[in-house]
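Entry 14. Ran structure prediction on the chain below.
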Amino acid sequence: MPRKHTVKAGEHLMRIARKYGLPDWKALYDAPENAAFKQRRPNPFVILPGDTLHIPDAAPAEMKAGTGKQHTFTLKKAQTTLKLQFHDDGPDARPLARVRYHLDIEGAQPVEGQTDGEGWMATPVPMDAEEATLTVWLSEQESMEWTLELSHLTPSDDVAGARARLNNLGFDSGDPSAADEPLTEQMLRAFQQANGLEEQDALGPQTRARLEREHGC
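Output, structure tokens:
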């Protein structure tokens, strides 16, 4: 009997796939029954509560192994890339280049590294990781720590999706899950001004496209 799943707030494809015993998000996204969903959501990491997915049957994996021997099988987790850029605070914000960072990722080994010359860090993380703790050293004595929510975004034409992108870009518009947040339009206007946009609608197509471009999705 065909199964359907309606996306709830905070869910993403990897979490849904795991719930139904599927190997990864591609088993959902590339299923022929979900062709219309795929066309509507060209970015698989940007979905909206209320979206409906058909759940395909999980195909058993087959491995050849000789009898009379002990075998070890390793299951590889699907990964994606976490990419962040750091700036100092102030009117003349500069990239935090060549600074040390430490990332504790839920369900994975910690990662240590250094930002590049433009303040960027890029590191692989498990696709199903939902939280991480990031520490950045501004100097040998001074550090800052953040808790990162690695959940997937809703589309940019959704108010919560716009808020989340604004917050990540430094335009504090409040809690993305809040039903009504008066800062949203104010921060959208500030974003438009910072990017030379003169669109009348605070969340018009030019603004959405620029939000996605600046945010990376």
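The chain has a mean pLDDT of 83. Will compare against last week's run tomorrow.
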